[in-house]
Amino acid sequence: MNFWKNTTEGETRWWSKEKSLRKVFGSLNDSQNSIFVQICQTLFNISTSESMNSDTRFNANVYLQMLIKFDTIITAQLFLFIFKSTTPLSNYLQTSGMDLLQSYKMVENTIKTLRDASRKFIDVYEKAKYFSSAMNVIFENEDATFRVEEDFKETRIKRKPKFHDEIINDTRYDCSKKKYEINVYNITLDTVIESLQNRFSKHKEMYIDFEWLHPTNFKLIKNLPENAMNKIAELLTDFSPNIDKKILQEQLIDFAGKWDSLSKTLLEEYNCMTLDLEKDDEEEESELAKEHLVHKKTCKNCIFCCYQILWKYNLYATAYTELFLAYKFLLTLSITQVQCERTFSKLKYILNRLRSNLSQERVEDFIIMS
Predict the structure, then answer these.
(1) CB neighbourhood size of 124 (10 A)
(2) Greatest extent of the chain over all pairs of C-alpha atoms, in Å
(3) For a FRET experiment, which of 2, 177, 236, 340 has its CA 20 to 30 Å from that of 96?
(4) Domain residue limits, the chain
């Protein structure tokens, strides 16, 4: 019982599936640190226990038979392979201070990695066979009466007679390995790649324009393409209907030429307020979110530093009006819905038992302030 008490899983949906899969099947290169053996033994003990009712024993046996199938093993290895590429991206997209351009580059790299490996079925297949063999060695040492399947089972193809009284030779076998590769492996990876492309790559033109706003590309600003800033100008018309793409390009070129001297005037550090949202709900102190003053160093080479310069010297008033709006739009743009979900997490600190009678308008104001 002590073992199961120490293997609790978190309920955060962002990472719980990947962590649960690693907990049960281990990692791609290390299957020893898994609880697969313990789960199988527990299900077997339940299925053979006389103290359990018949339904419980039957369900435990069904779950055990499904778990030791090779199809289950190789599917788990497939998703471990996918999570190996997507988990770093997912973790970065959840950070509160992520860089929009860097996140897009990580998405493109993840898509490229998955596309390059989308037809390397043999690697996942070999890892699944290795996992099954390693588990069977453990079961043999513990004298278990069941074994994990170490390969696909060949299934016969049923042929229907085309003519009356035709004798059918039902000895053809279907290649389960090839069938799984086509119908499961390829389709799963293609679906993941397509999902990433539909969600992020369709905004490629916008991200290309945003790259010109980054100080690292200011040295190349003389080669600014004619169609640069088209997408940004189109998006900014919702906030400033009279915005002109040509003026935006001219302001960017002028600002980039003066960046080296302007960046030297920035302070080495700046302060910002952050909320402590990691308190336990059962604690009395968790009723109120506590603000903390955080000191951060100025890199003098990022989007936020450009925004600080424009704000510090009031350059947004007349000199760089359109450019300031572009930087403001970039800094407030969210690439995922993580920040929106964090807003709902903050709601429990705003609308608590001490402030349960707040009006809807007041609650909305507090959420915006948070």
Answers:
(1) 23
(2) 94
(3) 236
(4) 13-155+175-202, 208-272+296-369
Four-point Cα dihedral 181, 186, 192, 198, nearest 10? -160
> What residue type is 10 in one-letter code?
G
How is residue 227 written in tokens?
């169609």
Distance of alpha carbon 324 from alpha carbon 317, whole angstroms: 9
Give the amino acid at 304: F
Measured between alpha carbons, how far is 30 from 274 in angstroms, rounded to an integer? Answer: 39
Closest C-alpha to 157, from 139, 140, 169, 143:
169
Q: How far apart are CA 311 and CA 301, in angstroms?
A: 16
Residue-averaged pLDDT of the chain: 80
Q: What is the pLDDT of residues 161-209, one digit of tens each?
A: 666 665 656 555 558 888 898 889 999 999 999 988 888 777 778 888 8
DSSP 8-class letter at 321: H
**Burial of residue 201, with CB atoms counted within 10 A of its CB: 0-12 exposed, 13-18 middle, 19 or more buried:** middle
Given a contact cutoff of 8 angstroms between Cβ atoms, the answer to whether 307 and 329 are in contact is no
Buried b (16+ CB within 10 A) or exposed e, 64-84: beebbebebbbbbbbbbbbbb
358 phi and psi angles, rounded to 5 deg? -70, 145
Give the pLDDT confidence score for residue 75 in this predicted structure: 93
Structure tokens at 188: 């799963």
Residues 6+ apart with CB under 8 A from 247: 322
Residue of 268, 263, 241, 250 lying closest to 212 (CA atoms): 250
CA angle 27, 9, 28 (to 5 degrees): 5
CA-atom Rg of the chain in angstroms: 29
pTM of the model: 0.67
Q: Let me know: does 363 contact 350? Beta carbons within 8 Å.
A: yes
Instruction: Specify burial of residue 282 (Cβ count, 10 A radius: 0-12, 13-18, 19+).
Output: exposed
DSSP string covering 225-270, please? -TTTTHHHHHHHTTT-TT--HHHHHHHHHHHHHTHHHHHTTS-SEE
d(CA 169, CA 176): 20
Full 3-state SS string of 132-160? HHHHHHHHHHCCCCCCCCCCCCCEECCCC
